[in-house]
Amino acid sequence: MSERAIQAPIPDPTTQPFWDAAAEGRLMIGLCRDTGRHFFPPRGVSPFTLSPHVELVPASGQGVLYSYTVMRTATPYMPAMVELAEGPRIFTNLVDLEPEAVRIGMKLRVVFRATEGGPPVPMFAPA
Amino acid sequence: MSLRGSACIVGAFEHPTRKAPDRSTAQLHAEVAWGALQDAGLSKDDVDGYFCAGDAPGMGPLSMAEYLGLDRLRHVDSTDIGGSSPIAHVAHAAAAIATGRCNVALITLAGRPRSEGQATGTATRRQDPAIPDDQFEIPMGRTVAAAYAMCAMRHMHEFGTTSEQLAWIKVAASHHAQHNPHAMLRKVVTVQEVVESPLVADPLHRLDCCVISDGGGALIVARPEIARSLQRPVVTVRGTGEALKNHAGGYNDLTFSGARWSGARAFEEAGVTPADIRYASIYDSFTITVLIQLEDLGFCAKGEGGRFVADGNLISGVGKLPFNTDGGGLCSNHPANRGGMTKVIEAVRQLRGEAHPAVQVKDCGLALAHGTGGLLGHRHGSATVILERMA
Description:
By secondary structure, chain A is mainly beta. Chain A has one domain: CATH 2.40.50.840. In chain A, 6% of the residues lie in helices and 35% in strands. Chain A has one helix and eight strands. In chain A, the strands form two sheets. Chain A has a five-stranded antiparallel beta sheet with strand order 6-5-4-7-8. Chain A is globular, with a radius of gyration of 15 Å. By secondary structure, chain B is of the alpha/beta class. Chain B is 34% helix and 18% strand. In chain B, strands 3-2-4-7-1-8-11-10-9 form a nine-stranded mixed beta sheet, sandwiched between helices. In chain B, helix 6 crosses helix 10 and helix 9 crosses helix 10. The mean pLDDT of chain B is 97. The interface between A and B is large, with 46 and 41 residues.
């Protein structure tokens, strides 16, 4: 599949470190220090306790496919939910494979894709 | 407190238009408000509560109260949980009436996405930097169709649900729509036609998707004493439930919806079970929406939805659970990209015995209307009402 133009994400003061890491090719996720659970997307509070006891930590970038679709637009693309090794599911796109080769449960790894004038975004390719 | 029996739906009106380039959104709201008041036998001066959601222009009640000339309002509510809003508004109106904050509530919904040429399901919108999820989802090409398609894909993976089973939902809706002169799509379709229509977002085909239509609808909810003084059959609010569901920090299970919670709350308040329901209006933005909600509401077990909807089980006069007898959003109307209003209206028609004779459920004493608003695969509101015809 040819690749579509990707809107640049618009960081906010809370998420700027996430996007700065993305620019260096690193996927970061939230960690709740109250519960020890990871979460996504990152934010300034824990979605589990609402406390500010959170930090941004590196993810392994490994995951498995939870679900996906093929958007049959002029330039088709594949929105997907990928379950990260750390637990959270991330809404992303599948790249570097054809729709016929996609299988729920397949192993994936993060790759970053350039956007239109902003930081790159995390997408997933076969591991 | 329980809202059981605390309020009645005394007026219901669906705008006959499906394309309204000649009308403003405010004008559509006004026309449906007039229609519902005429239906109830009330006037605007009886209205002391007003409810609308994000489809109303401007600051909702502030703009609309002036346009409609509602000068006796003492209670307003502009809760917006997408297409499920009007169903939540019925519950909120019942609560407001029960607590003495108003006597006669007007709920309006209207919009004109068809005239405005919105690619509702397949276009990615621009980011709003203030919405926290936008920066993580819009660059990924989030669309309405994709959000529901991912749920369908996962449901198929876990439970073996098939495209043919999903297609039966559209087939049932089309059997009903043929009798609705206002429906956008009146042609009866087959399972084969649905699965052979072009894919929009795998595994959803074009005929798995609802229509894009202009129009709207309105409801009048009133105190039971007022309802009994009017000339219309009395339809009472027996049970209500609401819920929100989202990614929950990245632990979202796409195979179920908030209907699991809103439905349970509504059934508990009503003191009835799914087996008691004679007619169900089920939100049908896509076929998969219906299937997942039917399971979550308890009409069948989780994972059994495919088998439940197959072979005409949702067709009035044929199957066990007649649904969306107006043709629903799949075939008739999805005004303002929000299907909750028409869900309540058709339930009221069924309870009054005023549905089209070809689809009217015999002795329809208890009906359910359920809505999902927002994006099933990301974040959505759920609202359920159980309505009863009083003797």
